[in-house]
Amino acid sequence: MPAQRLSTFWDDIPWEGISSEGGVKLRNGKKPEKLLRRIIEISTEPHDIVLDFNLGSGTTCAVAHKLGRQYIGIEQLDYDQNDCV
């Protein structure tokens, strides 16, 4: 029996052409702000704390900030490029 899609909840979020979204240029691994916004909105309330323990470019914290959430970002790797700072 072939698999059937359960929902189209995520279909309106584009993955292409987002490399410079938010002024941060990354070739791979970047998540769309619209996707992160939806996840944060459905899983938190204003003034909740969002923890991003793979900070990278800081997109999750940036979206949390725009949504009025508090946030903590942790990055363990020693990056020289594409840091959130």
List keywords for this structure.
2 strands, 85 residues, alpha+beta, two-stranded parallel ribbon
Helix content: 10-25%
Order of helices and strands: HEHE
- Averaged pLDDT: 79
**Over all CA atoms, what is the radius of gyration?**
15 Å
Principal-axis shape? globular
Strand content: 5-15%
Protein described:
The protein is an alpha+beta fold. 22% of the residues lie in helices and 9% in strands. The protein contains two helices and two strands; from the N terminus they run αβαβ. The chain has a two-stranded parallel ribbon. Strand 1 (49-52), helix 2 and strand 2 (70-73) form a beta-alpha-beta unit. Helix 1 (33-43) packs across helix 2. It is globular, with a radius of gyration of 15 Å. The N and C termini lie far apart (49 Å). The mean pLDDT is 79.
Short description:
This protein is α+β, with helices and mostly antiparallel strands.
Write the layout of secondary structure elements.
Layout lengths: L32 H11 L5 E4 L6 H8 L3 E4 L12
Parallel strand pairs: 1-2
Helix pairs in contact: 1-2
